[in-house]
Amino acid sequence: MVNVTDINVMKPLLAEHGFHFSKAKGQNFLIASWVPENIALESGVTKDVGVLEIGPGIGPLTQQLCRNAGRVCAVEVDNRLKPILDITVGEFDNLEILWNDVLKLDIPALVREKFEGLRPMACANLPYYITSPILTALLEAECFEAVTVMVQKEVAQRIAAKPGSADYSAFTVFCQYYAEPELLFDVPPHCFLPAPKVTSAVITLRTRKEKPWEILDQDIFFRTVRASFAMRRKKLSNGLASGFPELGKQGAAEVIAACGFSENVRGETLSIPEFAKIANEITRRKMG
Ligand code: SAM
To answer: What angle do CA 98, 124, 145 make, to 5 degrees?
Structure first.
């Protein structure tokens, strides 16, 4: 197997094919073999798993996934990488590469088509410029057992944040609504070519089979969350009144009181079950 993380192998390989890194496509390739090895190991990928990989690049993680998984489907937007991937991962007969923009794919349909009889997982060293839309699509697809990704460390901390902390955000609630996150390990900039300016981190999101709360209307729930964080420094009643103009200030205050919270409560301190309580109260009032 070609050791694509060895810089003495990678550089001539890229040069031979006239390849230049595209910043716009978020291309920072791994040059430390322990990183893809550990991502593949800690993702829990085994022979009964079908893995969707996003952005194989020149294939360091793809190689590891192909060794461990039943089937790998890798989606890459940059078809200049084709002749290089032919060399680095051409030997694997459990791999299919789709030359496409991952955000244009119908992910649940793809998973049904490619991974029949296998446990679906997603795994990637993500292109950082589209971290949020990709994670949103992977979680909303609700078809993966686990999603293990490398992202900017700051994003990983935001995904795994606890209520009341500075990192806790609407995106935290979105991710934790669908999955339970676990921070795995940090990856310093010198592990990539070119080196990014920030530290990276690998995080795994184990998706929830059953959601441990009752939510009457998912749209109202996410509207409540967004409204609560839109005015972080202000009382929850202000955020709710502006996110739900139909409630007005008084209605917002009544909702908060009916749920048993103090009138001074701030949205950024609420847990998912507490957001659910507020959202359900709003839903009941809208229906009533
Ligand atoms: N997996 C390789 C590695 O670890 O060295 C490359 C990771 S690099 C951070 C991100 C990869 O995602 C690049 O190969 C880039 O071309 C690809 N990419 C960027 N945007 C994409 C998109 N919209 N759909 C699919 N792949 C994309």
So the answer is: 95
pTM above threshold 0.90:
yes
Give the separation between CA 263 and CA 109, rounded to whole angstroms: 46
Which amino acid residue places its CA nearest to atom 23 of ligand 1? 101
Query: Cis bond leading into 194, ω under 30°?
Result: yes
Which residues of the chain form CATH 1.10.8.100?
Answer: 218-287
Q: Distance, CA 27 to ligand 1 centroid (Å)? A: 6
* Helix, strand, coil content of the chain in percent (nearest 5): 45, 20, 35
7-207 fold = Rossmann fold (3.40.50)
pLDDT digits (tens, 9 = 90+) for 119-167: 999 999 999 999 999 999 999 999 999 999 999 999 999 999 999 999 9
The number of C-alpha atoms within 13 Å of 88 and in the hemisphere containing its C-beta is 23
